[in-house]
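We were asked to recover a plausible sequence for a given structure. The inputs and outputs are reproduced exactly as logged, with field labels preserved.

PROBLEM: sequence recovery
POSITIONS: 788
GIVEN STRUCTURE:
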């Protein structure tokens, strides 16, 4: 009976099957993505007791949170606080866009890595292919490398063990012994690295300042005793730093390590979301897509109720109860849902590799208890949602009235319910259309915004090895290469890592308020760096050898002037790190962090010796000729080192990789949601044309034109779209305004977005329903009037 009924209504069955299978496919992929997000960093055995120490400070009237902490903090907390069983210090180079070179006599390789104390592999559960977790960093010269590095330098994991290598960062060479080899890092790990070096090696070299309490940079992680009251512990450590640094402006607190990935955003010192917002967003998208698919089933089922009324009446007349009929109709919905689910699983398996490529993930499908539970719950939810209303609606008719033909008309309640469901579909579609446009425009704004310098055709690479002693000659030769416009050096990458890179609070000037706590970004520059970047001067001059030594001169940005309250900044003395310098120039503001963050006050010093990054401006269209020549010159001046360069605009775009992926996902899921809605509209338009065949014939016989008939059939759908706009526009504005507020610099949501969205939904509606409307309008009146 069930198969016979489905076969009898092939069109509706096909539309419902396509809608539900497409919807469930989307929901399944979103579930896999959300499940992966929720399990980020959860693989550590100590996850329940593993915490990160973060700092809070009040600066220029705003509360800021910092992941960077003092170097001695971990050891002190482990010694002083009984709640802390183990504490580790970690300096993640990736957070600061810093790479290190690892080399042997024959080969070298550049990677991101970590400096960590000896208990790193005790606190974190990263697997090793060789070496014991408790021993690999016991030696001060110990280094753990990835299997890729081991194979690249020594041919195999086994051959790498015990071998000596050189590692270099900021131009300072060091030696180490490979004591362990890493297994491949889990895909859901938020701490990327290819090697780990004992933290003691850093303290002996470029990181000597990390021994002091006044300096920050490393991250501190603690393992707390089970049962520790987190609220009481945070209260206890709030002023802990004052034990060792009386004048500190920082207070401490801890947060679960695995929560940082999803809940890493703070506003004025209060946790205010993070990637968890995208989890919530796509959870809603999944629910709405599934509801839209179910609405199609409900609408088409109730719209075609007149075709099944006699079936219901006869069954009731021969003794069928309402419960029996409800079970029959719910069974049909369950059958369709299970069939759609099977198709969806196949589609998800086919599209999963593409989905992984879009999201940057490595999701695999494993038949776990949670996945089975989700499949069962989705099947039950979908079948109940899709089938309950039609089942109770169809089974509610009285047998006598149905057989007498008294219920062959549609009730107002049915019409209102069906129209309300269509309006809901329109609302969801409109919100998704507006969201996609806002995200797209914000990312276009990010890419096109004037950053205060020209990031195009600008490359950077590390200054290291022999190049440290021959930089002036190298730069001179570099500028002579055809296609090279200019070149110079800077302390760190212009596109800074988390927090903006090197900075200091130790800046004073005449008239500075006593209680002012201001974090100044600092950079050492060589002559010509600002010109190479294309930074514009507001007043004064850049560094130059025409004025003698500029070692006691500094350049600041516009934001620094505002915060310092300087009316005539040129010639103003400032004191930093115990040394007095004079302001000789002011640059216009430019961005070194993403547009999520405000421009910070900046101080530039002339100090070529402490620069570590070479920046080169290339002529447009000559990159392919210039780059090989630069590589050859680099190898000539720095033999044995890898010439590894990056285009600055690529580094800039990498800051928005999450938003770019979310934008792409939003476009795909919005498109699929609209497609599912269109399938439902097409089905309703088809049925609407069928049931009004005689009415159309009468109207045409009385002189109505084809266009009049088409307008008659589509105007109801356009009215529903208009009603949906009244609800969707305020809702979309609120949602996207909240999202845009995550960016300090963002677009405005203007009326043109809503006009375009309205135009889009009207066009989609017209394209969807016009075909069936036109087809019905073109039928010969005599034919339609003669149909029984």
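RECOVERED SEQUENCE:
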């Amino acid at each position: 009976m069930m198969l016979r009924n489905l076969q009898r209504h092939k069109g509706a069955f096909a539309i419902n099957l396509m809608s539900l299978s497409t919807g469930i496919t989307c929901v399944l992929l979103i579930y896999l993505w959300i499940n992966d997000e929720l399990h980020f960093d959860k693989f550590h055995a100590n996850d329940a007791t593993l915490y990160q120490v973060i700092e809070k400070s009040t600066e220029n009237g705003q509360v800021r949170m910092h992941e960077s902490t003092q170097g001695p903090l971990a050891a002190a907390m482990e010694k002083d606080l009984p709640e802390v069983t183990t504490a580790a210090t970690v300096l993640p180079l990736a957070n600061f866009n810093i790479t290190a070179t690892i080399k042997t006599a024959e080969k070298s390789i550049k990677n991101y890595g970590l400096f960590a104390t000896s208990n790193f592999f005790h606190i974190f559960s990263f697997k090793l292919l060789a070496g014991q977790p408790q021993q690999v960093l016991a030696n001060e010269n110990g280094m753990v490398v990835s299997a890729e590095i081991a194979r690249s330098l020594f041919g195999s994991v086994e051959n790498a063990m015990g071998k000596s290598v050189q590692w270099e960062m900021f131009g300072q060479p060091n030696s180490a012994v490979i004591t362990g080899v890493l297994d491949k890092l889990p895909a859901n790990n938020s701490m990327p690295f290819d090697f780990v070096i004992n933290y003691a090696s850093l303290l002996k070299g470029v990181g000597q300042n990390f021994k002091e309490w006044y300096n920050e940079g490393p991250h501190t992680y603690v393992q707390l005793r089970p049962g520790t009251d987190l609220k009481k512990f945070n209260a206890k450590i709030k002023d802990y730093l004052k034990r060792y640094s009386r004048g500190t402006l920082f207070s401490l607190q801890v947060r679960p390590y695995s929560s940082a990935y999803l809940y890493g955003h703070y506003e004025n010192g209060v946790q205010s979301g993070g990637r968890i917002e995208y989890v919530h967003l796509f959870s809603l998208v999944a629910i709405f897509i599934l509801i839209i698919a179910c609405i199609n089933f409900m609408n088409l089922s109730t719209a075609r109720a007149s075709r099944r009324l006699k079936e219901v009446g006869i069954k009731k007349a021969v003794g069928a109860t309402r419960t029996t009929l409800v079970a029959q109709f719910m069974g049909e919905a369950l059958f369709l849902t299970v069939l759609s689910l099977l198709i969806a699983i196949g589609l998800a398996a086919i599209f999963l590799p593409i989905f992984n490529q879009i999201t940057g993930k490595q999701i695999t499908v494993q038949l776990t208890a949670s996945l089975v539970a989700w499949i069962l719950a989705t099947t039950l939810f979908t079948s109940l949602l899709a089938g309950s209303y039609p089942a109770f609606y169809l089974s509610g008719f009285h047998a006598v009235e149905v057989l007498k033909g008294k219920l062959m008309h549609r009730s107002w309640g049915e019409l209102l319910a069906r129209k309300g469901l269509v309006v809901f579909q329109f609302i969801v579609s409109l919100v998704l259309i507006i969201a996609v446009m806002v995200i797209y425009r914000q990312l276009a704004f990010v890419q096109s915004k004037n950053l205060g310098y020209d990031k195009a055709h600008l490359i950077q690479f590390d200054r290291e090895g022999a190049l440290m002693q021959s930089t002036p000659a190298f730069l001179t030769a570099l500028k002579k290469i055809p296609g090279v416009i200019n070149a110079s050096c800077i302390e760190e990458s212009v596109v800074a890592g988390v927090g903006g890179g090197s900075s200091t609070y130790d800046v004073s000037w005449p008239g500075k308020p006593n209680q002012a706590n201001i974090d100044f970004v600092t950079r050492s520059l060589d002559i010509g760096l600002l010109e190479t970047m294309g930074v514009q001067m507001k007043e004064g001059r850049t560094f130059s050898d025409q004025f003698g030594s500029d070692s006691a001169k500094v350049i600041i940005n516009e934001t620094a002037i505002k915060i310092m309250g300087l009316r005539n900044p040129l010639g103003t003395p400032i004191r930093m790190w115990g040394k007095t310098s004079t302001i000789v120039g002011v640059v216009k503001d430019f961005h070194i962090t993403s547009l999520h963050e405000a421009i910070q006050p900046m101080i530039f010093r002339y100090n070529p010796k402490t620069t570590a990054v070479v920046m080169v401006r290339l002529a447009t269209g000559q990159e392919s000729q210039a780059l090989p020549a630069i590589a050859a010159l680099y190898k000539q001046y720095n033999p044995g080192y890898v010439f590894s360069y990056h285009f600055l605009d690529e580094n800039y775009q990498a800051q928005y990789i999450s938003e770019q992926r979310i934008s792409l996902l939003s476009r795909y899921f919005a498109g699929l949601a609209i497609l599912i809605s269109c399938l439902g509209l097409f089905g309703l338009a088809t049925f609407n044309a069928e049931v009004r065949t005689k009415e159309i014939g009468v109207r045409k016989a009385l002189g109505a034109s084809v266009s009049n008939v088409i307008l008659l059939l589509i105007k109801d759908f356009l009215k529903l779209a208009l009603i949906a706009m009244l609800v969707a526009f305020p809702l979309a504005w609120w949602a996207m305004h909240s999202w845009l507020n995550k960016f300090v610099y963002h677009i405005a949501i203007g009326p043109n977005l809503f006009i375009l969205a309205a135009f889009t939904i009207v066009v989609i509606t017209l394209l969807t329903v016009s075909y069936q409307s036109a087809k019905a309008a073109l039928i010969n009146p005599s034919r339609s009037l003669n149909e029984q």
